[in-house]
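Human:
Class, as today's exercise, you are to examine the entry below, and be ready to discuss the fold:
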Amino acid sequence: MATLEQLSTALRNADAAGDTQAAQALASEIRKLQTAPAAAPAPPSDPYRQAAIEDRQRIEASGTSADAGMARLAIQGATFNTADEVLAGLRTPMEMIRRGTFDPREGYKHAKAQEDLALEEGRKKAGYAATAAELAGGIMTGSGLARGGVSAMRFLGPNAGIGARSAAAAADAGLMGAVAGGAEGNSLEERGMNALTGGATGVAVGGAMPGLMKAGGAVLSPLTSQVGARLNPERYARNQVARAIMESSRTPAQIADDVALAAREGQGMFTVADSMGNPGQRMLSTVARSPGVGRTNAVEFLEQRQAGQGRRIANALMEGFDTPTTAAQTRTAMTAARDTAADRAYGAARAGAGPVDVSRVVANIDDTLQPGVNRIVNPQSGIADDSIESALASVRSRLTDGRSVQTDFTSLQRLRSDLSDRIQVATRAGRGNQARMLGQALRELDTAMENASPGFRAANRQFAQSSRNIDAIDEGTAAAMRGRTEDTIPAFRNLSGEGQQGFRAGYVDPLVQQTQGAAMGVNKARPLINDAFADEVAAIAPQRTQAQMQRRIGRENTMFETRAQALGGSRTADNLADEAAMGADPSMIANLISGNWGGVARGAMTAGQNALTGNTPAVREEVSRILLMRGGNVTPQQMQGILEQAVQRIQLRQLIMGQAGRGLSGGLAVAPATQQQGR
């Protein structure tokens, strides 16, 4: 806008040129200016800022930049906006000398104005780069504080939940926001309000940070899983196995000890997956139901192991009950031993024997055969003897012919042996009454022979005891097949030592037969997993072998469950996995031909599911290798290493995420200042 002096000069020039119209217009403008009210005086400028501007102009004139550079801006963010206050404080003595004052407040105000102006101009020139530098500084300090333990996170346990971690993050971010906000402004009131605002913002944003990062991690998990599985399938597989170990609630040492003990007890095929229980079994199922080398290895091993279950259980039973031979072999051996001992004992008894009085034996038989005797007196009768009468008459005929009586000990001993055999035949044939009547005759004969020979009584008792021991084999067989525990255990305890061994042989025999005869794929350990069998084992099996046998049977049951979990159930999942491996999904082809693009997309997503989760063939092969480790291949140190490495990686990832969250909180704390031109 032209001044009054300029308009007056222009008016004189117009008059001189004779331009009346222009002269009138200029005169009108001059009158307006002369009659206009006086303008209000300009407000006085900030003397400290003005002095800072003059200092900056003087420095710029000398060819030196007075603006804040990128490093200075980064320091401003790293100190949560307090660097300008600190530097101004350091320059205060110099400014007091320059300004010729003894008042530190005056020197500080000049120094602070210079720092503010330098930051303002530096931000203008650097633009977005200045914002990035300050944010980077804040992030670096926030991460450093977390790394140094200056964080509320240090008070949380390793398994703290999302709520506790959010509260700790809110506390950290709120404190950083309050510090950064309080460092903005020049008056106490201004700084106080900024501190409240920064603290509240930090609490809100910091509290939401763990949840947001967790959600972001879930979104990115398919990508990170895929990258990790591709770059290092072995490490990815070990992480997955470590997760299953933690889910099993078993320590690595316990798992390794289980596998080693199984190998020492003849079950070297007991694996890590078996010891882990359901988590290991389900993980092996994932391997066995997806195509690849891992599935082939798992299926072949599990099927071969199951094929030998019957033989292993049979060995466990025979060793557990200390019955290395079958019931028939045991009977043969015990009978041979009895007969050998009897030959010696009866031989000695014959040497010192006198005549035998068999009158009571004959009288006992005649009590039953009285009708037969009458026929002898009256031979015209044609009534035939029954089977009992025939058997007794045969015995009587070898004792007496009605005129003479057999008294020779040796001859009667042969008769006794024959009579004993007849009783056994009648018993096994189910002719109980015949066996009973012949038994009466045998007892009478034994009494007569014992009276004739002092050594015969001892020999006879020894023979009878050995026979009872042999009979215990049949008792054991009956107990195993249809006996009740309440009867079986007392019957066993009432036997002599040799009789108990015979009972064990008979008891085990049908169990072994049942185990060996069961079909392939049947859990042969299942009939032995019950309270009744456990009680009978505790009473019947030798103490030194009980616990080991029960452990072996329990492992066989676990190994069957592992196979059932991995290979059992519907084959739909297997078929889908095979189709995915072949890359020929008929439904996708049909959808493509018909133009059903939505169906094509869904099929493609389903086909790529394993790849997105990191469940690659290489990972499954390594998981299968670890889960199927057995025998001497497993050590406590090895299993502990798998778990510790995974835990360390998890802790490192949590530490990085925690530091990243604190770093972002630090950057957000200084973010408002980066958007302002001066403070």
About this structure: Residues 219-225, 372-378, 607-612 have pLDDT under 50 and may be disordered. Residues 510 and 550 are 18 Å apart (CA to CA). Residues 323-352+454-528 form one domain.
